[in-house]
Automatic annotation (TrEMBL):
GO molecular function annotations of the record: serine-type peptidase activity
Example GO biological process: proteolysis
Pfam families xref list: Peptidase_S9
The protein, known as: Peptidase S9 prolyl oligopeptidase catalytic domain-containing protein
Residues covered by region (Disordered): 100-133
UniProt domain Peptidase S9 prolyl oligopeptidase catalytic: residue ranges: 139-229
Bias-annotated ranges (Acidic residues): 110-121
Length: 231
């Protein structure tokens, strides 16, 4: 969604349309830093151990093939990626992580000790060199710079947008999608909201094209994109 204004600031052509699946749109209200996702467990690893164990290369896709048998989906305690995300949901540090980045652990470059989820006592008391810096709340302008709602209210978001969001989304509250689409309409920008009753976050990952669920909760968004691409 940030391409709606970052392309403009970079002197590039705006996208013809944007399709958003359950994306966060309001970073100023504090909703994303409230404790949520209570059905998920607390993290078991210290932040410094998570940093050491994180893969060096980013992952760009979900494992949606259904091989997971834990019933917990992407949440796998002991996996540093899951542990980091649990920290965002449970401890109110989402914006700090997004905008300040991860802290550096003490002796990070010199230590070769292998950390695991078993080394998890007092995980809330992390021993990092710059803990105060990374947990410091970003200022309002830095937050607004990544917030679709803030940019819309400033007149910088003018791209037609289609939002798909589940009413039981445990990560990004459904009401934020309603607020954003209402704000699009108020600003005279084309906006659509497809409400998926009872759906949670990343509800579409395992859906197959041609099924009733796909046709009802995914296909309308792509049809919207195609209409604008053909104009």
């Amino acid at each position: 969604m940030t391409t709606a204004w970052t392309t403009k600031f970079a002197g590039m052509k705006l996208p013809l349309a944007i399709l958003s699946f359950y994306g966060p749109t309001d970073f100023e209200s504090g909703d994303l830093d409230k404790r949520r996702a209570e059905e998920y467990p607390e993290r078991t690893m210290k932040i410094q151990n998570i940093i050491k164990a994180l893969p060096k290369k980013p992952l760009t896709q979900y494992d949606g093939n259904g091989r997971d048998t834990t019933g917990m989906g992407w949440v796998r305690p002991g996996d540093p990626r899951s542990e980091l995300v649990l920290s965002l949901f449970k401890e109110g540090n989402g914006l700090s992580l997004l905008l300040n980045g991860l802290p550096r652990s003490k002796n990070e470059e010199n230590s070769s000790e292998d950390f695991s989820s078993e080394d998890s006592e007092d995980s809330s008391k992390d021993d990092t060199d710059d803990a105060d810096t990374w947990l410091h709340a970003p200022d309002a302008e830095r937050i607004a710079a990544i917030s679709p709602l803030a940019q819309l209210r400033r007149g910088n978001y003018t791209v037609p947008t289609f939002v798909i969001h589940g009413t039981r989304d445990e990560i990004v509250p459904y009401h934020t999608a309603v607020t954003f689409v209402d704000a699009l309409h108020a600003a005279g920008v084309e906006g659509h909201l497809l409400t998926v009753q009872g759906a949670r976050h990343i509800h579409d990952v395992t859906l197959k094209m041609g099924t009733r669920q796909w046709d009802e909760s995914v296909a309308p968004g792509y049809e919207f994109l195609l209409r604008h691409l053909r104009c």
